[in-house]
Amino acid sequence: IKSSYHAKNWSNKESGGYIWHTTGSGKTLTSFKASRLATELDFIDKVFFVVDRKDLDYQTMKEYQRFSPDSVNGSESTAGLKRNIEKDDNKIIVTTIQKLNNLMKSEENLSIYQKQVVFIFDEAHRSQLMNQRC
């Protein structure tokens, strides 16, 4: 993230990266630590951890809260996601791809669109939505 930012290369699709884990190898802890480190970067405004299912949303929230109780925001709805985005804090936002998609389709002028954000996707290979703006 730092090297892409300093190279002014963040909008180039080659500037991203991925971490691959096998089942049971500590993926949740790794994603939490990567997310926390990203929230500490002064040039990052928000960090999103995006999952593809409600049960994974709940499970991730529970695990993240176990790692650090006051470091994460979750939401039950798209409206709750919008409220979390508008908060002036550096908490990780855990959400589903469906809530994120619904919000982006219904809100064309969110202030977050003008900010530097990090998206971390879990299980991204399982579900894909067409016409995403992210």
Automatic annotation (TrEMBL):
- Per the database record, which ranges form the SWI2/SNF2 ATPase domain? 12-129
- Name it: Type I site-specific deoxyribonuclease HsdR
Q: From its record, what is one biological process in GO terms?
A: DNA restriction-modification system
* Top-level taxon: Bacteria
Q: Which keywords accompany this UniProt record?
A: Hydrolase, Restriction system
Q: Name one Pfam family in it.
A: SWI2_SNF2
Could you tell me which InterPro entries the record lists for this protein?
Answer: P-loop_NTPase, SWI2_SNF2, Type-I_R_enzyme_R_subunit
Q: Which GO terms describe its molecular function?
A: type I site-specific deoxyribonuclease activity
Q: Which Enzyme Commission number(s) are listed?
A: 3.1.21.3
Record keyword Hydrolase present: yes
The enzyme's first-digit EC class, named in words, is: hydrolase
Keyword Hydrolase belongs to the record? yes
Q: Which PANTHER family would you find in this protein's record?
A: TYPE I RESTRICTION ENZYME ENDONUCLEASE SUBUNIT (PTHR30195:SF16), TYPE I SITE-SPECIFIC DEOXYRIBONUCLEASE PROTEIN SUBUNIT M AND R (PTHR30195)
